[in-house]
Amino acid sequence: MFLLLPTAYLMVGAFQDGDGNFTLNNIRGLFEANVLDAYWMSIKISATSAFGGAVLGCLLAWSAVMGKLPAWLRPTLMTFSGVASNFAGVPLAFAFLATLGRLGLVTMLLKSLFDINLYATGFTILSFFGLTLTYLYFQIPLMVLIITPALDGLKKEWREASDCLGGTAVQYWRYVALPVLWPSIVGAMLLLFANAFGAVATAYALTGSSLNIVPILLFAQIRGDVLHNPNLGYAMALGMIVITGLTNAGYMLLRSRAERRSA
Hey, what long-range contacts does 30-39 have (CB within 8 A, 24 or more apart)? Predict the structure, then answer.
């Protein structure tokens, strides 16, 4: 009920005007230039953070599961990943501002110790790259949690059979491991995309209105004074639901395929 009732409320409101009459103007408003730009910016940030989180998360998970590291590192990594994957919103935004802001700890250390002015290079935490970097903080641990069971599902007999047949490590990963893992990896990337696309509090607390992304524009439509048009905000939220719904459906489809392969 907590999921369906708000969704139904948004769907109804997306096709109403301020007086409650049926209209398609809100749906037409989704194709305005500033709204399309916001969707495109959100898609780029989500896709970039999903790809980066998937690559780095896979490498971390592989090193913990198959990298012959000390045994205590894996439970430590999994515990940290469980905490970090849920660390978002205003606390995460404040942490990155205190770390990589104009007067942040890392920014000032680089300037005082190495004479590197990070912001003179064009970097700013209130930008596409800054927000993507912030999202990676919870995207990478989430990828670790998702892909670790898939790596555990790779049977030792497959590697032994490859070695017995004269296969190299590259051939094993190319012809055996990756074909088994790719549904899990692609499905996890879709989940990371949906996770970043729906993040609201972190983006708003970090960038305010300096970035034109869907969550911030939606907030301005519903709660703002200048762009106040709640029903257009409902239509934008409906568009977000459609995008995240499709990506989650793709994730569930690929997850079921991965489970059938590993069975």
Answer: 30/235, 30/236, 30/239, 34/212, 34/217, 35/217, 35/236, 37/212, 38/212, 38/213, 38/214, 38/216, 38/217, 38/236, 39/214, 39/239
Class of 4-262 in CATH: mainly alpha
The gap from C-alpha 216 to its chain's centroid, in whole angstroms, comes to 16
CA distances for 195 relative to 13, 76, 127, 168, angstroms: 24, 24, 19, 37
pLDDT tens figures, 219-260: 888 876 566 788 998 999 999 989 988 998 888 888 787 777
The predicted-structure confidence for 109-148, as pLDDT tens digits, reads as follows 999 999 999 898 888 888 899 999 999 999 999 999 999 9
pTM exceeding the 0.85 threshold for the entire prediction: yes
Measured distance CA(75)–CA(143) in Å, rounded = 15
